[in-house]
Amino acid sequence: MNNTIYTRQQYLEIIRKEKNTVRLVQVMLVVVFLAAWEIAAYTGVIDAFIVSSPSRMVSTFFLMAQSDLAVHILYTVGETIVGFTIGVVLGFFMAVGLWYSDFVSRVAAPFLVVTNSLPKIALGPVIIVWVGAGISAIITMAVAISLIVTVMELSHGFYATDKNMMVTVQSFGADKWQIFQKVVMPYNIPVLFQSLKVNIGLSLVGVIAGEFLVSKAGLGYLIVYAGQVFKMDLVMMSVVLLGFIAFLMYSAVSGLEKLAVKIINHI
Questions:
Q1: How high is the pLDDT of residue 266?
Q2: How far is CA 198 from the centre of its chain?
Q3: What is the mean pLDDT of residues 156-166?
Q4: 221 — phi, psi (to 5°)?
Q5: pLDDT by residue (tens digit) across 221-237?
Q6: Is the pLDDT confidence value at 122 over 90?
Q7: In a 3-state reduction of DSSP, which class is residue 4?
């Protein structure tokens, strides 16, 4: 057991070094993976036509960047942000409503479980008929995938709030809405942002699923088109771009979380 006592500066330095080490290992893993992939494709261990290679994807990226790649990226990112925002806002207010009314919560619980278990992609044709074949259908798909997860995660967090804290505030005459404002919501800021981190990825999944079905632009459309004409370099490049976009969106939510924590700590 390590009983060493550190000063605050020494402790922060240790934490900083650990973070840097983690980042370095992550970068090394990516570099090793890409190098192994490139070597395996070059030596014929794997079929470069089927699984492509990093160098071929880079060439495809620069070729597509000279045409309409930026348009496809903007379509996918824009649809994801809109679907994500709608899903989070609707999910938040639904979760608040369920917490506020125990009766409604008990009635809705089994329906939420069943709805969450449904494969949302299977509803694609129905969604297209309901809202039309276009961006609206893609955004609706993203909302359908992320909405119920938001409701269930936030509802669970609201109900898990420290009961003693709520009773204490209630003893001072606070009504249920004031309890939510002063106790439940601040207590569940980490739950909210954890939900955001999950839902940004789910929204992207919903958008790509929608683009598979109806879109004429976007990275999902590129993947379908490239697969149909056997341009596997374009398929793999689009998949890698999706991973990069998902990483950037997740990082943006994480940055927003840190900012929110700082603001709350200063209040």
A1: 63
A2: 4
A3: 79
A4: -60, -45
A5: 888 888 888 888 888 88
A6: no
A7: coil
Looking up tokens 């990483």 gives: 247
Q: Which residues of 85-106 are buried (b: 16+ CB within 10 A; e: fewer)?
A: ebbbeebbebbbebbeeeeebe
Query: CA 241 to CA 62: how far, in whole Å?
Result: 13
Radius of gyration of the chain (CA): 23
Residue 227 buriedness (CB in 10 A; 0-12 / 13-18 / 19+): middle
Q: Kindly report the pTM of this predicted structure.
A: 0.79
Rounded distance between C-alpha atoms, residue 87 and residue 153, angstroms? 13
Q: How far, in Å, CA of 72 to CA of 238, rounded?
A: 10
> Which CATH code is given to the segment(s) 52-266?
1.10.3720.10
Whose CA is closest to 160, among 195, 180, 182, 188?
A: 188
Q: Which two tokens stand for residue 23?
A: 């980042």
Does the pLDDT of residue 240 top 60, yes or no? Answer: yes
Evaluate if residue 19 carries a pLDDT over 50: yes
